[in-house]
Amino acid sequence: MSRIEATFNNLRTQGKKALIPFITAGDPSPALTVPLMHKLVEAGADILELGVPFSDPMADGPTIQRASERALKHGVGLRDVLALVAEFRKSNSSTPVVLMGYANPIEAMGYEQFAQAAGNAGVDGVLTVDYPPEECAGLAAALQQRDIDMIFLLSPTTPDRRFQQVAKLARGFIYYVSLKGVTGSANLDLQEVSRKIPVIQAAASLPVGVGFGIRDGETARAVARFADAVVIGSRIVQEIENSEADAAAQNVFALVKGIRTAMDSK
Hints:
Blueprint: H1 3-14, E1 18-24, H2 30-43, E2 48-51, H3 62-73, H4 78-89, E3 97-101, H5 103-109, H6 111-121, E4 125-128, H7 137-145, E5 149-154, H8 160-167, E6 174-177, H9 190-204, E7 208-211, H10 217-224, E8 229-232, H11 234-241, H12 248-264
Helix pairs in contact: 2-4, 2-12, 4-6, 6-7, 8-9, 10-12, 11-12
């Protein structure tokens, strides 16, 4: 059983939903990434989503784009991100870590080499925005051999018939993009999202996390009523961007702690 599956099983027995915060590795500096990861766990995060900096993102809005730019100025690449995960694992062996990024760095490294390096570092899941199921069977197989979950995105425009195709390769959980737009967009339609979640769960038999457009505790609590997990990225990255370096970790802790409290409130 993977750490991701075990986490969802444990939360289910507690009657709780997963909180999955996102930060970009290397933002605002490589030295602060691992302390931020620990603060997120301390604040109540169940799974960590760690962004791999990339120069040409397609799904990320301006806030996360700027985070990637800051990280790239520090020279942070895929191998550096894996080293940061390995550093985190020295003192945390239980919290799942999911890498979120794009296909190019993985293609450059090669499926087998990447899967082996990710497994050695302690990565639990990989979500690549631009790998459709038709084109990533090789990567999915390499990851599965190392007990690493391949996580896929579904969106409001994904036809229901495609859910079954994604379900053949998906592991860990399904990430449902809650709106038509990039990360950090507004106009979250909770009614439409709540209608889609059961359809996805029935097709994939996996937990479903909802992200894009969730920016506060109230919205997170509303989404947690029908989703298995709440993913929050841009609001956290914005907090990092607006904080002095020595205050970023504590400010992020306060933000995520408030969201966790709201999600757990009845």
